[in-house]
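Lab notebook, design round three. We kept the backbone fixed and only want residue identities now. Task for the bench partner: fill in a sequence for the structure below.
Input structure tokens:
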């Protein structure tokens, strides 16, 4: 059993997972320390509030509010868990977007722009196609595919300039992000999709339910009543599994990874490196655009169309989701849910204590930085293993050097010599 555990620990994948877990633990610890500091330095916060803040940081997803005595209560909260799964859906998709591009040696920082283009295309199709002519279910499919296609086109642009003009994809992605923000703002500004029915929401686009289009619940609303969850989370998980199969079990996935490992060697082996670079960024863009489509086609979310001043956090949050998962599509499912869990914990923190949800933003930021340094953490873990191994080898050598202590190689040699001597006699 011990040998099996040692073998498992020595695997590169195990150390990668340990590095990610350690990043999460440190991030949660930092968040708890911040709550303590704020609690002890603020005259308006009591020790009880500080302790409650720490508990919500760590277990906010299980908070059920306060009981009759005013104490925090914890248990299964179907509303919070359902909302967590709903918010995790676009995070999983943008995490997949970053992970797939990274496997090809590309850093897709253009996920926010691809997300915006997917948002625009899916909303315009969902609201623009009359459902009295085309069935609402078919409109949903068209809008979803359209959102993914818009993201793919927008992602292919930095891929193209990288492959054929050798322009760094990070710089190209930054430019396409801000072009997308302004283009989306202009497109909705001249459209008829602005919410003029509710005068207080003229800065928002209609929910897709305005045209009778929404994502099917698939029975999840019965399991998590009162939440926003729908079938989008199932679609995201299925897509993650498909991307894992694509990257690990297909010729295309091998070619993409070969280009990421060594573009020149891949070209020498006959792989079309330029085509695969463009294709990789197009796939990444399609995943981000599909994530936006799944979020806004839910029918219960509104899009603020004046986006030119900012970029969606969901696009950027895909980076730590991918890094914590070591760019593994299956791991992205769990890290996306974890990031969403922190988001829900921030909401609970704001609702139930004098603290605000920005503390969870600090936790996420800490985890982001640590995930970026996950390779260093992994090296530290590996270094500790190597030091223990070297120490054990040194002790074994010292024991072997003691007088009168036969080594493992001496004994067979002596036996062989004696046997030969007996034969000679």
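Proposed sequence:
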């Amino acid at each position: 059993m011990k040998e099996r555990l040692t073998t498992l620990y020595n695997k590169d994948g195990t150390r990668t997972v340990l590095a990610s877990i350690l990043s999460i633990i440190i991030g949660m610890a930092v968040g708890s320390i911040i709550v303590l500091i704020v609690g002890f330095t603020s005259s308006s916060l009591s020790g009880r509030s500080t302790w409650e803040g720490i508990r919500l940081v760590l277990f906010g997803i299980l908070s059920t509010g306060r009981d009759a005595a005013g104490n925090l209560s914890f248990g299964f909260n179907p509303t919070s868990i359902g909302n967590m799964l709903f918010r995790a859906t676009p995070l999983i998709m943008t995490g997949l977007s970053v992970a797939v591009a990274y496997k090809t040696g590309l850093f897709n920082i253009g996920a926010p722009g691809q997300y915006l283009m997917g948002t625009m295309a899916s909303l315009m199709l969902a609201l623009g196609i009359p459902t009295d002519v085309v069935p609402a279910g078919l409109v949903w499919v068209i809008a979803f595919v359209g959102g993914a296609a818009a993201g793919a086109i927008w992602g292919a642009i930095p891929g193209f300039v990288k492959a054929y003009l050798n322009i760094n994809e990070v710089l190209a992605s930054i430019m396409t992000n801000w072009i997308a923000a302004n283009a989306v703002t202009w497109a909705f500004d001249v459209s008829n999709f602005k919410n003029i029915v509710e005068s207080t929401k003229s800065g928002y686009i209609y929910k897709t339910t305005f045209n009778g289009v929404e994502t099917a619940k698939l029975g999840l609303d019965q399991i998590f009543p009162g939440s926003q969850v729908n079938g989008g989370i199932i679609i995201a998980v299925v897509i993650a599994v498909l991307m894992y199969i694509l990257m690990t079990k297909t010729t295309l996935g091998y070619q993409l990874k070969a280009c990421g490992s060594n573009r020149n060697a891949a070209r020498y082996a006959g792989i079309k490196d330029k085509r695969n670079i463009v294709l990789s960024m197009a796939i990444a863009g399609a995943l981000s655009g599909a994530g936006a489509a799944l979020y806004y086609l839910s029918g219960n979310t509104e899009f603020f169309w004046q986006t030119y001043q900012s970029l969606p956090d969901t696009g950027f949050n895909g980076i730590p989701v991918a890094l914590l998962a070591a760019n593994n599509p299956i791991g992205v499912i769990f890290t996306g849910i974890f990031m969403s869990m922190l988001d829900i914990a921030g909401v609970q923190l704001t609702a139930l204590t004098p603290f605000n949800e920005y503390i969870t933003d600090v936790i996420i930021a800490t985890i982001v930085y640590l995930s970026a340094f996950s390779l260093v953490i992994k090296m530290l873990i590996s270094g500790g293993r190597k030091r223990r191994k070297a120490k054990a080898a040194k002790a074994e050598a010292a024991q072997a050097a003691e007088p009168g202590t036969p080594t493992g190689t001496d004994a067979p040699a002596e036996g062989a010599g004696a046997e030969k001597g007996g034969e000679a006699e």
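Keep this in mind before ordering anything: Residues 12-41 form the longest helix (30 residues).
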